[in-house]
Write a structure and sequence with these properties.
Layout: H1 3-27, E1 42-45, E2 48-51, E3 56-62, E4 65-70, H2 76-85, E5 93-95, E6 98-102, H3 108-145, H4 151-184
Antiparallel strand pairs: 1-2, 3-4, 4-6, 5-6
Helix pairs in contact: 1-3, 1-4, 3-4
GO molecular function: ribosomal large subunit binding
Keywords: Cytoplasm, Protein biosynthesis
Subcellular location: Cytoplasm
Length: 186
């Protein structure tokens, strides 16, 4: 493995950590309805769990209401139960093959709790990025030990990896502050 391979691997894996953070933050509701909030819900479909998007379409009725249109009539109650049992705290209303999901208004206390969850998700992403930096630096040290690169090359490469880490941490901080602002606005 060469120095450039190590750097490219670290950069792509750090990017994946940021993408994971984005998807995790998208699941945290802000009081407004958006179709992506139900993406992670799994529904029992003929004995196997499948994502909700494979058995129904999710649309926005208004700023506080989602409409879930199931494609098979008998799946209505199953989808309704899956939404109710999810960790989102939603109470769907079944109307045959159409399900309305009203978004309850967030209280100030609930907003603060959600902001704490956002910070926790961000800290987890930062830890993941730092672990990737550590792994890259260890791989560089192994190359020096095996006499494939010089110590000067190792230091330069570690500086590059550190700059990548710093950029990722700044991106994570931006995502966290944007989400917190989104949650705290009434």
């Amino acid at each position: 493995m060469s120095v450039s391979d190590i750097q490219q691997s670290a950069e792509s894996r750090m990017g994946k950590s940021i993408d994971t953070l984005r998807t995790n933050l998208a699941k945290i509701r802000t009081g407004r309805a958006h179709a992506g909030i139900l993406d992670h819900i799994q529904v029992e479909y003929y004995g196997s769990p499948v994502p909700l998007s494979q058995v129904a379409s999710v649309n926005l009725l208004d700023a506080r209401t989602l409409s879930v249109q199931v494609w098979e009539k008998h799946m209505g109650s199953v989808v309704e139960k899956a939404i109710r049992d999810s960790d989102l705290g939603l109470n769907p209303i079944g109307m045959g093959d159409n399900i309305r999901v009203p978004m309850p208004a967030l209280t100030e206390e609930r907003r603060r709790d959600l902001a704490k969850v956002v910070k926790s998700e961000g800290e987890d992403a930062k830890i993941a990025v730092r672990n990737l930096r550590r792994d890259a630096n260890e791989a560089l040290k192994k190359l020096v030990k095996d006499k494939e690169i010089s110590e000067d090359d190792e230091r330069r490469s570690q500086d590059v990896v550190q700059k990548m880490t710093d950029r990722c941490v700044v991106d994570i901080d931006k995502l966290i502050s944007q989400k917190e602002a989104e949650i705290m606005t009434v």
